[in-house]
Amino acid sequence: MSPLPATVPAIVRTRLRAAVRRPARLTPEEAEARALLLRLCSLLLQYPDGELAAARSVLTATVGTLPPSPAAEQLGAFTDWFAHRQPEELEGHYVETFDLRRRSSLHLTYYLHGDTRRRGMALLALNQRYRAAGWEIDGGELPDHLPVVLEFAALAGPRAGEAPLRQHRRGLELVHRALTEADSPYRHILAALLGLLPPASEADLRAVAELAAQGPPDEDVGLDPYGSGEFAPPGTFVPPEQAQPTLVPPPSSPEGLR
């Protein structure tokens, strides 16, 4: 897989991390366009610290150059909001939305395995997948943090790279539903991402409805960065017992992309 062209701004340009064969069904241009969409989703879902906030004009301009598509339209709707808010407002909205609401947490294995021992095994398997592709996580985020998963998908390609996204499709559907119910602009990013994946089946939608009503499996194993208690409905804030800072994964930082 070749890096994105030099015409793409540095903040969204990728380095070559692993040699992954492109699926025959995608042309090189289509593969690069898809990787760029996934990389933009990864960046826009990261904590809006000063560095990312300062790059808003670059990100907005990059989204504006995307070929017309439903995903590009959704990202444009998000950047219209993102570009016109004060940094403090962006930071507060992000923390409220993703760090204090378990139904819109960005840690994907939580939705599939909840607070059970299986989640620890799923995290280990995901980290092993990254290493097998020649990719190491050097930041403070867990390997199931959605921006990290999206970064891997952009680098490794639609087959192996996007497999974790397909595996956690139901969790992504639930996050999108929660963001929509909360009227968060971040719903547009999830809508763009879901539009890139295979359509949800009836079984998927039934499972999402059940997950929304009952929550994921529950078993106290000491791996719960989201707090304790019942699965939080939309609008309910559940402060974490041991807060973990939201960090931008180094592979997606502007410094690491130049």
Automatic annotation (TrEMBL):
Q: Which InterPro entries match?
A: DMSO/NO3_reduct_chaperone, NO3_reductase_chaperone_NarJ, TorD-like_sf
Reply yes or no: does the keyword Membrane apply. Answer: no
Asked whether the UniProt record includes DNA damage among its keywords, one would answer no
One Pfam family, short name please? Nitrate_red_del
Task: Please give the residue ranges the record annotates as the region Disordered.
Answer: 215-258
Q: Where is the composition biased (Pro residues)?
A: 247-258
* Keywords annotated in UniProt: Nitrate assimilation
Q: Which domain of life is it from?
A: Bacteria
NCBIfam families of this UniProt entry? Answer: narJ
The record's annotation in PANTHER family points to: NITRATE REDUCTASE MOLYBDENUM COFACTOR ASSEMBLY CHAPERONE (PTHR43680), NITRATE REDUCTASE MOLYBDENUM COFACTOR ASSEMBLY CHAPERONE NARJ (PTHR43680:SF2)
The entry's protein name is Nitrate reductase molybdenum cofactor assembly chaperone
Which lineage? Bacteria, Bacillati, Actinomycetota, Actinomycetes, Kitasatosporales
